[in-house]
Amino acid sequence: MEQSLGSESGPVDKSRVLNVKPLRCLVPIFPSSPNFPPFSPGQSASFVSANPSGSFPPGFAPFYPFFSPTDSQRPPGFGVNNQPGPFGFNNQIPGAVPITSFRTPPPPPPPGVAANGDTGPSRRNYRTHTSGIQSQSQSGEVDEDVYSKTPNQNAQYLSSFSMHATDAELTSKAKRSKSKPQKRGRKGQEVNFSSPEVDAESFLSNILNSCNPMVFDTFRRADGDKESVGYILMVYDLLRRRITQVEDGKEATPGVTRRPDLRSGTILMNKGIRTNIKKRIGAVPGVEVGDIFFFRMETCLVGLHAPCMAGIDYMGLKISQEEEPVAVSIVSSGGYEDNVEDGDVLIYSGQGGNIYRKDREIIDQKLERGNLALEKSLHRGNEVRVIRGLRDVANPTGKIYVYDGLYKIQESWVEKGKAGCNMFKYKLVRLPGQPEAFAIWKSIQQWKEGLSSRAGVILPDLTSGAENLPVSLVNDVDDEKGPAYFTYFPSLKYSKPVTWTEPSVSCNCQGGCLPGNSNCPCIAKNGGYIPYTVAGVLVNNKSLIHECGTSCLCPINCRNRISQAGLKVRLEVFKTKDKGWGLRSWDPIRAGAFICEYAGEVINRCNVEEIDSENDDDYIFDATRTYQPLGVLPSDSDGAHQVSSQLMISAKNVGNVARFMNHSCSPNVLWRPVLRKSNNESYLHIAFFATRHIPPMRELTYDYGIIHSGKADERKKRCLCGSSKCRGFFY
């Protein structure tokens, strides 16, 4: 730089500089150019704004921290020939672009070596460049403390950066060239990819219009309840799934990751669809101990833990004339050296110190921000909400956040961490009298590892190997040894297939149906999208699902065969206290996840009148029944019920685990018809999906529906679901 601004004889003599002025006071001076007339001192000079990456007028050179990129490094659109500019250079200066939007291109691979990254960016690059925020797929906590005193600051903060990181369920990572829409599939078949645009605002409007509306006024946003919390989580999850589905069929941008979870949360915050924005000490209205969340953004929207990334949330509390911070909640998810082995005691590490930050020097933690708030809470003795982040077995890069209830800080100290720097440590003890949460997870883990035995087990596997996962039969209530005998069969038994009037075309996706492939007839039947995300989660709650049939060439692990691949979670048939046998899961189930199908024998409607005994009726699935709208969920599709209106299934003699699912007036499971076509024959199946996140060991229930026949009163039974919306009876 000295040489470019100095005289011809050599660099500038710095000792001769007598008057130093602020940079903003200096007038830019440019050398004369053959195509531009020189200007004299005092004449106003035209100012030129050159892009940091070039190009530069003659006589100027790039200086630190900028450089002159090579052709391979030059961003698209730069260096395009245009009409000569006033300074005689032929490169058009593009519009102003934030410096933070420029990414350093990766170095080219050595000759003969394939470029690394064909499957997407590495996890270490998931940190957004404009905010320094890490993706939730990483295990480390972020030093940034997103603490705010105003309820809308989090929304403004989130909307300030580009949310294009990968979801915990990871949308498709395949890099596809925009100039080459035609691509070969896994087995060489030709695939035509389309790139639909993501109109998140339109998606949200459609979801809200299809739901029972709920107005979030000032009072509901300040203080929530179970209904409003459920509504928010439902809308958030439907929007996130829909964005994930559309982005899955888009061209992937190299170096850019997707975050439908953050994008959906920001939209809801900006729309005011959130609750419990008023920070508080203690329990949060509408959130129960043991509730689970698959995304940190969910805890923000319901007011359980306001920061979307920081592990400590705190608020200002006035003490006499001064205000001091006190902690209200913490998230322990493995980012720091926490001791989480004890179910009722948590040794929590403070924040800061650049722990696990490879780009910064590790230093001693300071008694400030969240650390200071925890120290103040120790002396004040206030309750602190604890959310434990646990590894998601179904998704190695994801976590599940369990609300473990209220704790109190018992003591604090400073000790050397593994890196040799001082860290704050806080011992939190769980308050007695709360429902079990994290302790249940620990017990289940011990059962799976064989470290302890499940009490009351009658059969370790009720299915006798018919399912890919064992299903335990457990009774820890009384001495009954099991339900009446039946033959376990994992699917439906059709006496004859149903003839379909419209001809059916099977797909040729030998490696599996791919999102965005407009040549796949099975995807076309579902409106141009695969009805499931890459994690196997149902996207739309109200659609008739068209899955690939037996004549399709795709394998059994195709994403459009979710209900055909068997059980995905470890289930348990257990004896309830007052409702006979029931069904629950050892594993957490996320909203929209497939649970099982209703197996049994498809019966002829002409024989329905012959089935009149009470025992037979207990094991009949009747699609002709009327089903109450599921509260805040979108209304059912008329087309789905018209297709399934002729289906009746008897599971008395032959069936699977679905026969043990009890009725509830506020169910956490819904059924959807799944149509599998093969040539001109169709097979209709009934698949069960979770309506919301379901914690382990919570009973699985669905609505049995209402009968309108003349024998309705005879079949009416007393309902013991215990729901606040209980009708008092079921059929």
Helix content: 10-25%
CA-based shape: globular
Annotation, overall tally of beta strands: 28
Low-confidence stretches: 1-9, 32-36, 63-189, 635-641
Instruction: Please indicate the percent range of residues in DSSP E strands (runs of 2 or more).
Output: 15-25%
> What's the N-to-C terminus distance?
85 Å
Number of helices: 13
Largest sheet: 7 strands, mixed
Counting helices, strands and paired strands, the structural category is alpha+beta
Task: Output the radius of gyration.
Answer: 31 Å
Mean pLDDT: 75
What is this structure's SSE topology?
Elements: H1 2-5, H2 153-158, E1 182-184, E2 190-192, H3 200-210, H4 218-222, H5 226-248, H6 260-271, E3 292-293, H7 296-301, E4 312-319, E5 322-332, E6 345-349, H8 369-380, E7 383-391, E8 399-416, E9 422-430, H9 438-449, E10 457-459, E11 472-474, E12 487-488, E13 492-493, E14 498-499, H10 521-525, E15 545-547, E16 571-575, E17 581-585, E18 594-597, E19 600-602, H11 614-617, E20 620-622, H12 638-644, E21 648-650, E22 654-655, E23 662-663, E24 669-678, E25 681-690, E26 701-702, H13 712-715, E27 717-718, E28 729-730
Parallel strand pairs: 5-7, 11-16, 12-22, 13-19, 15-24, 23-26
Antiparallel strand pairs: 1-2, 3-8, 4-5, 6-9, 7-8, 8-9, 10-11, 14-25, 16-17, 18-25, 19-21, 20-21, 24-25, 27-28
Describe this protein's structure.
Helix 3 crosses helix 5 and helix 5 (226-248) packs across helix 6. Helix content is 15%, strand content 19%. It is built from 13 helices and 28 strands. The strands form eight sheets. Strands 3, 4, 5, 6, 7, 8 and 9 form a seven-stranded mixed beta sheet that branches. Strands 14, 15, 18, 24 and 25 form a five-stranded mixed beta sheet that branches. Strands 10-11-16-17 form a four-stranded mixed beta sheet, with no helix packed on it. 38% of the residues are buried. Mean pLDDT is 75; it is low at 1-9, 32-36, 63-189 and 635-641. The chain is of the alpha+beta class.
